[in-house]
Each structure stands twice: as C-alpha cells, then as structure tokens.
Specification:
Structural class: mainly alpha
Transmembrane segments: 39-63, 75-99, 111-127, 133-154, 174-191, 203-221
Mean pLDDT: 91
Strand content: under 5%
Organism: Carex littledalei
Distance between the termini: 20 Å
Radius of gyration: 20 Å
Keywords: Endoplasmic reticulum, Membrane, Transmembrane, Transmembrane helix
Shape: flat
Subcellular location: Endoplasmic reticulum membrane
Membrane topology: Multi-pass membrane protein
C-alpha cells in the first residue's frame, strides 16, 4: 500500500511514453524506468542496510524485552528484504503491464499462475517449519520470481531499440551502504548486550548514525542531480 501511489504514477508515465514509438520517446521511457528503479533501490537499500541490525533494538524499545527476545526481531529482519523486493516487483510489473501487448500480457498471466502455485506450496512448507519467518520468505521468493520474469521482459523490450542495463538503476555510492550494513551488523554483535541493553544501545546507535550520515552524504554527492530532480518533481506535484 505504501508504494501503490508511486506504482500507479509510474504506470501512467510508462503507458504514455510507450504509445509513441519514436526513438526519442523510447529513450525517455528508458530514462523513466531507470529513474523509478533507482529511487526504489535508493530507499530500499537504506532499509536493507540498517533495518536488520536495528530490528532487535526497535522491538525492544517499542514492545519490551518479552517481544524482543522472541521471533519478532528475526521476522522484522527478513521483512526488510521483503520490502525492497515488493517495491521492485511493483515497479517492474507496472512497466510490463503498461507496454506489453495482449499476447505478452496473456503469457505474463500464465506465468503468474505458475508463480502463485509455487508460492502456495512454499507457504505450506515454510510456515510449518519457520512460522512468520517462513511466511515472509515465501512472499519474498514469490516477489523475486516475478521480478526475474519482468526483468527478462524489460531486457527483451529494449533489445532492438535502445540498450538497457540494470546496473544503471543502482544508485552511485551504494557500496557505502554495503559497508555500513557490515559495520552495523558487527556493531550489534560486539557492542549491543541484551542483558545491558540500555547501557550498550547508545554505542550501537551512534555507530549507525555515523554510518547513515556518511552513506547519505556519499550518495547525495554522487546523485545530487537525480535527487534534486525528484524533489522538484514532488514540489511541482504538490
């Protein structure tokens, strides 16, 4: 639901641009798709970089030790990955549905039925073995299968008209998020003590704040033009 307005807006943009088959329109369509995926990845990678390392702390602060010492933090860690896969799937499928012809849409629906069957089987198996974590894992795998299908379609769509690389969708400076993720994981294991949570949490939090600040600064300096364009577009929409 959080990403639904963005997906609907992306769909409208993709559909409008795909109606024009000129080279300029195809180039704009490619740029729009790259921009949409880059924005999704920029937000999703931040969640993925810091969410898992601070899931326990968040549950502990909000709901207390009873919940934080249970399954909830682990489920939240897995959910961080599910969020980015959900957003990626929504955007890539919005593109597919906006530009595909009737035959391609029918083929897509057939594959969705197959993915749904796989999802149901995984649901039964994983929920029995892993509970809530299993449910999130089954949903994540389902999203990944759908993303792969849409990605193959996208590559085929731009095959003859314009080169397209998913590498262009990665925000420049993403390696800072990768190293921040490693740093905060180590910080949680080394510094955060459950029996002395309130004494050790400030250290873990401080490391996260530093990593977050460095990562955001690095990404903004490399993607300043893109981010400012998004901000201007948002202000214009308001």
């Amino acid at each position: 639901m959080v990403f639904l307005p963005f997906e609907e807006s992306s769909y409208a943009t993709f559909a409008k641009l795909s109606s024009d088959k000129s080279q300029e329109a195809v180039s704009q369509l490619k740029s729009s798709l790259i921009g949409a995926l880059k924005l999704i990845l920029m937000i999703g990678l931040v969640v993925l970089a810091f969410g898992p390392s601070y899931s326990y702390a968040l549950i502990r602060i909000l709901y207390g030790q009873k919940w934080s010492d249970g399954e909830a933090p682990l489920a939240l860690r897995y959910y961080c990955f599910y969020v980015i896969s959900l957003a990626m799937n929504g955007t890539t499928e919005a593109f597919l549905h906006a530009v595909a012809n009737e035959t391609q849409l029918k083929r897509s629906n057939n594959w969705l039925l197959i993915f749904s069957a796989i999802y149901i089987i995984l649901n039964v198996l994983l929920i029995r073995s892993a509970g809530a974590v299993g449910l999130i894992t089954a949903n994540s795998i389902n999203m990944l299968l759908r993303i792969v299908y849409s990605a193959v379609f996208i590559k085929q769509y731009f095959k003859n008209s314009s080169s397209f690389s998913f590498r262009e969708c990665m925000p420049r400076g993403w390696l800072f998020l990768f190293f921040s993720s490693l740093t905060t994981v180590i910080s949680e294991r080394v510094f955060l003590k459950r029996e002395k949570f309130w004494d050790t949490f400030p250290i873990h939090l401080s490391i996260g704040v530093v990593c977050f600040s460095v990562s955001c600064t690095a990404i903004y300096s490399r993607e300043k033009q893109f981010i400012n364009r998004i901000i201007r577009t948002r202000k214009h929409a308001d």
